[in-house]
Amino acid sequence: MSIMANILEIVTATAQKAQGARVTRIDLAIGERAGVVADALAFAFEAMSPKSMAAGAELVITTIALCYRCPACARETQENSSPCPKCDLYPEVVRGQELQITSIEVE
Amino acid sequence: MCDTCGCPTDASEPAKEISLGRDILSLNNEIAGEVRRYLAAKGILCLNIISAPGSGKTSFLERVGREYQEELSMAVIVGDQQTDNDQQRLHRSGLAAVQINTGAACHLDARMVQRAIKGMDLSATKVLFIENIGNMVCPTAYDLGEDLRVAMVSTPEGADKPAKYPDLILTADLLLINKIDLLPYVDFNLTQCCSQARQLKPGLEIFPLSASTGAGLAPFWHWLRERTQAKAAPDYRPAAERSRG
Asked: Which residue of B has its CA nearest to A95?
């Protein structure tokens, strides 16, 4: 719920600055390892948006898969349970922790 | 749209797309940055402790207060949904403590911490602990302006706790494994717990200890004291803001 409150705060401020009357679409990019469940966000949006400028807006959530990269050779993998076969270093997270509003549509 | 009053002048005005690329928690992160700069200017080291309810965060801080408050002046901001029980416990162990009651919220955010700090006398303080709400998920998303994020698990919770809650371990700087005095009585494999945590976060600092007996506390304290001195040094530069992805 507090994540959605943050989203609506940013969306409202952005729409007001653009002199929009209402928000018709919100695009979010949520990483697999962002600690946020898309379904829970959608539910919070249903509960909280009707009283905001985003009433009736479409919520589009794009999930970003977890991706690790070897800090030495930049080899990318989907898991970090084993070290890089070439460099013997454990890979670091490079994608999958995003919690972003990519764009909004206002009218 | 009419420039004077904002009324729609053209009903068929096309919708416009605004590109943001903005972090949802950017408002929180801006305030966390203010907290971080404020504490850096005072040379105060700040630790954010996150664990499940009942892992022993308050008992750990009581023990630290009793053993070391005379050596280094410490203060605590403690978050709970309700009651000031923890604040009272911490006071009794000699620590300056401020209680935040979050009501419905399951985590502390930077704004709550900033508000609490404004009401505190930190002139002599060297270390500020933030005891987060007992929850291993939501608090991990909120930067509070801390220098170090501390994850705590306790032996009765099971050795696979780090593997089950990777978000916490991935964002933590150190892991405290509490209640090691119970090792003879509970099914807990210390080696397994450490290796699972380091698999997620290679190089993670780990201190097994017991808040109730004080075992294992000295190595942790030695480590913390070094960081406190580094932070108080005039050439200290504040850590980069925590970024998520």
From this structure: B245
